[in-house]
Every structure is written in C-alpha cells, then in structure tokens.
Design brief:
Low-confidence stretches: none
CATH topology of the largest domain: D-amino Acid Aminotransferase, Chain A, domain 1
Largest sheet: 6 strands, antiparallel
Strand content: 25-35%
Radius of gyration: 21 Å
Structural class: alpha+beta
Number of domains: 4
Bound molecules: adenosine monophosphate, glycine
CATH architecture of the largest domain: 2-Layer Sandwich
CATH class of the largest domain: Alpha Beta
Number of helices: 14
Mean pLDDT: 95
Distance between the termini: 47 Å
Shape: globular
Helix content: 25-40%
Number of strands: 23
Length: 429
C-alpha cells in the first residue's frame, strides 16, 4: 500500500522509519518531511507551502494513499480526520472534537473533573483583571497555562507574583511569541515524578504502548524553562504493571467515558502526561492526542511488531487482537538543540559528524535542512540521537557517545537524560 505521513519532526522521522520497515508498504509520501526522513527507504517528500486540509485530501487521492498517519497535533485539532472520513479515506488519529483534549486545556479539565480523574485544582479566566485578583490570594508556586496549542511553550511555573501579573497581561494581549489565547488556566503546582503514559485507543479498547519518560526542562537537574522535551527513554520503572492498571482504570477509561457522554468517540494515540506523587498516585498534567516527541523516538526504537498492523487495527476497531512486541532492550534518546532554544536561536549552522554509524544507534532529524549540499540547523530541536542498549545505562552511554561525535556551532544538550532512573533517585525509590 501507499502511505501518507503528515509532519516533519523527530517523531515523524521515527514513524516513517518504522513504516518503511513494513513489507505491506510500497511508497511513503511525507508532507513536509525533512532531510533525515527523505533518506529513509520508499520515501517521497512533497513540498507545499502551508498545506490546507484540501491539499492533503487531493494528494491522498492522487497518490492512491490507503492509510494516512498524522504526527503533530495541529492538523488533528483542525479536523483533518473528519475531512478524510468524509472522503472515505483511511486515517489514523482522533477527530476534531476528540482532539480538543489537547487543543483546549479548559475542555480537558472539564472532562477530567466530570470523570473524577485526579488533576491539579484549577480556575479558568477570560480576562486579566479577574486572573490577577485570583492570584493575589494564591501561594507560590502555581502554574499559568494558555488554553490553546502552544508547542510546549504555553505553560509557566510561577514563583514571583509580580512576573505573573505581567505574564497574564502579555498572554491576553498576544505579546508572547507564538501564543494567542482568550482563556488562561491557573492551577496548583504538583510535586512528584513525571512520566508519559501513551496508549492506543479505539472506542473503548485501550492498549498501552511501552512506557516512557521525557525531560521537559531545558537544563540538567530539571531546571530552567519548559521545552518540547530534551530527551526521553523507554521503558521506565515509574510506570510498572500496577500503575498501568491504575492509569487505565482511574484515568483513561473515565476520560473516554466522559467523552462518550458528549458523543465523542476516540481513535488514535492518547498521551497522558502524568505527575506521580510521593504516594505513587498519578495525576494528569495534560492530555496530548498524538505520540510524544521525543518519547516516540525511544518507544518506536523498541517496537518489533509491524506498525502498519497497529494503525489498521486501531482504525478497524480490532485493537484487542493486537499483541504488540517490544525489544527487551532499553532505548535512550538525547535531543541536540540550538543554543537559545526554547527562545531565540540562530539557524543555518553546518552540522558535522552525521555520516558515522554506530550499531544500535539511530539519528532522527527534527530541525535540519540541506544548504549547499550540507546538513544545517533549521530549528530549536535539531536531532534526536537514539540508542538501544541491553540496559538503560548502556543505552545512555551509547547515545551520549554518538552525540559527542556530532558538532555545530551552538549545539546544546542535557547531560543527565535517564540519570535519575539509573541512579535510583526518584522521590519514592
Ligand atoms: P503541560 O504542557 O501541561 O504538560 O505542561 C508542561 C510541563 O509543565 C509539564 O510537563 C510539567 O513539567 C510542568 N507542569 C505543568 N503543569 C504542572 C503542574 N500543575 N504542577 C507542576 N508542574 C506542571
Ligand atoms: N514530549 C512532550 C510532548 O510531545 O508533548
């Protein structure tokens, strides 16, 4: 079959790499793709500036696409699945109403609260004065979130109220780069260990993927601003069998039931960002309606089943027939980023050291392009270097060894991806 993959980051590179391994697949069309994705077998990248939903449908029809896979949240929230379904085109992912779980933090909180799912206590505000009056009475730290999509940049941990007053005004007046919101959520700060619980959902069928953990903060020791994610690994002992059962029973199922009451049926990946407290109780920080980036790179590195079967069974509603096989190895992903990320950073730096192979290591491209025959940087997160190892320590060492062979002017990375787990430093270890 011919497959269409939408997106062009590290997550989509990992998805494309797995799809290209399927014997069922003849050609893969990718919009927009990236230079790393284009190197994978069977790939044809399609360049269109700001593609519309109609553009995607036109290409799906022209290229005899039998399955479309959507990597990022934006097209899902815009309703790409609904449009493809209208044209009888097979597509994997939640529809527009279901994708609101990620697209609107306010909607997400309403569903969590009506399903009695544990989450941080919150209030939603539509104007700056009420929000500011509210925080005058709150103790620091607390958390301010912009309601809509913000590519991981709409969440602010506040430990200085004066800064919060300015932030609230800036959020409502659209003065923060890339964020436009008419609602803000203010919520209590939760302490604990974060983990990513990602599952496949088809109506009431729920199949958890291999467990994983991201590192959202920019700097070592989980300090500095939030980012899209600076590194991940899989599996994690934070999510053992007992916690998995608890999350399905107390979080995912009640969420799907509440959606059903609103007439919404979920199909696709569902990603619960969890904060696990000192008593090992999981709270939902947020929902995403897609795979995580960089979690996908670590998780898919361990997948040994045919990924196409997974997508097709989810669409057909026969997920319970699936027996997904995972390599009994650990995977560790280190993100190499541009100095200045997640704020301003320079682009166009020549990347050296890419054409060197270490067995069991895969480099996924996120923010690269080709200029004058060279790979150059073109984004904040540039590469996700992913290694498999017999255990997490070996995977981590191999990933860092490969990272150290790659150079550009202004390359940054965290030095402690996976270290907390390796050193047994979780609050409840
Ligand atoms: P979100 O996009 O909602 O997952 O938030 C991004 C990151 O901000 C999370 O991964 C956490 O590290 C942090 N965060 C969000 N909400 C809270 C909270 N209520 N308490 C503590 N940290 C939070
Ligand atoms: N790694 C976090 C995310 O994909 O949202």
């Amino acid at each position: 079959m011919n497959v269409l993959i939408i997106g062009g980051g590290g997550r989509e590179h990992a998805i494309t790499w797995k799809v290209s391994q399927s014997k069922k697949v003849k050609k893969i069309f990718v919009i927009p793709g990236n230079p790393g994705i284009n190197l994978e077998d069977k790939v044809h990248s399609i360049k269109i500036d700001n593609p519309s939903l109609e553009d995607y449908i036109k290409i799906a029809k022209e290229q005899d696409i039998e399955l479309t896979i959507v990597g990022p949240e934006a097209p899902l929230v815009e309703g790409i699945v609904d449009e493809f379904n209208k044209h009888d085109l097979k597509i994997f992912g939640p529809n527009k109403l279901a994708a609101q779980l990620e697209g609107s933090k306010d909607f997400c909180k309403k569903i969590l609260n009506s399903g009695k799912v544990l989450t941080a206590k919150h209030e939603t505000f539509s104007d700056a004065i009420s929000a500011i009056n509210y925080i005058k009475k709150q103790e620091i730290p607390f958390v301010i979130k912009a309601d809509g999509l913000a590519a991981g940049k709409g969440v602010f941990i506040i430990d200085d109220k004066d800064k919060a007053y300015k932030l609230i005004n800036d959020l409502f007046t659209g003065q923060i780069d890339g964020i436009k919101t008419s609602l803000i959520i203010i919520e209590e700060f939760l302490k604990g260990e974060e983990a990513s619980f990602i599952c496949l959902v088809s109506d009431d069928q729920i199949i958890p993927l291999a467990s994983s953990k991201d590192h959202k903060k920019l700097n070592n020791g989980d300090s500095g601003p939030n980012t899209g994610g600076m590194g991940a690994y899989s599996p994690t002992k934070l999510i053992d069998g007992k916690l998995t059962d608890m999350v399905i029973k107390e979080i995912i199922s009640p969420t799907l039931n509440e959606l059903k009451k609103e007439g919404i049926v979920y199909q696709g990946f569902l990603y619960a960002g969890l904060m696990i407290d000192k008593n090992q109780k999981p709270y939902v920080l947020e929902y995403n309606c897609r795979l995580g980036d960089p979690e996908a790179q670590a998780i898919l590195m361990r997948l040994s089943s045919d990924i196409i079967d997974i997508f097709l069974k989810a669409i057909d509603g026969s997920l319970n027939d699936l027996d997904i096989k995972w390599e009994d190895y650990s995977a560790c992903t280190i993100v190499l980023a541009s100095d200045g990320y997640p704020e301003k950073f320079e682009k166009g730096k020549i990347i050296e050291g890419l054409d060197h192979e270490i067995k069991g290591v895969k480099i996924f491209h996120s923010g690269t392009k080709i200029e004058d025959g060279n790979f150059v940087t073109s984004g904040g997160r540039v590469l996700s270097v992913t290694a498999l190892g017999i255990n997490l320590q070996v995977a981590q060492a191999k990933a860092y060894e490969r990272c150290n062979q790659i150079h550009w002017d202004g390359k940054i990375k965290r030095h402690d991806i996976a270290s907390k787990e390796i050193d047994n430093k979780f609050i409840f270890s």
